[in-house]
Amino acid sequence: MSPHARFVAYYRVNNELVVDSAILEVEEELPNQVSFLGNQHPQKAPGDSHMIEIQSSPHSKVGILAVDQSVYLLRNDKHLTSDEVYKRMKSHDLGCGTGAGENNKDVLNRGGLAVMTTINNLKTDTRPDYSCAANARRKRRNAAVVVDPQCCQLGEKVDAGTCQARAMNFSVSNESSSFHPRDDCVIQFYKCCYKRFEMDVRQRSGDVDVPNNLLNGLDLDQHPELLKSLLEDAQLRTNFPEKWLYEDGKAG
């Protein structure tokens, strides 16, 4: 019944079938709750040791995985999370809606129930797969390009280099269909870095060589020199050796 169940009620009156349906929402929760305790983002140098604590049900088999951030930058579409599990479970829902419909047959179809009855020779439709019929109403396209949030998160990390130097060395692959175009990511990386580390310092010192309106949506026409230097000098990383550590253990 997770993540939800369907309830279909019907009765017969005067050789007609009266039908209604509803969804019973079930709390999205996995049977074994695992929690990670301690500092989520410790500042550690290469070779340093760090203690982590994981809590779960007794005698659970726990896998600990550490992966180089660059691996997820290259391909993050296979990263399994609890949300992905719930999403996959919902994709197998046979229903396509609840409540009233055009007629009793439509209500049964939307409720995901297969019915064959002699009442007015009622027979619900069959579907080739789990998908529902597409809505004929067209949705308005969103022309705005949404940049991966990791581009901004990496720009906000503490680093000794200047934002422009870091942006020039920032490397992502534009060959992965799961990642946004390199130019947009480099721009977002620089904007977030500049906003966090350099804007206040430059304003106090009177150094305003980078306009403040850069932070509110970059205008390519007004700042061609800056963008050209950022995008042309940015180095493209092509070598992504797998760097990971994996260990199994049992919760006491």
Automatic annotation (TrEMBL):
Organism this protein belongs to: Paramuricea clavata (Red gorgonian)
**UniProt name for this protein:** Complement C3-like
Protein origin, superkingdom: Eukaryota
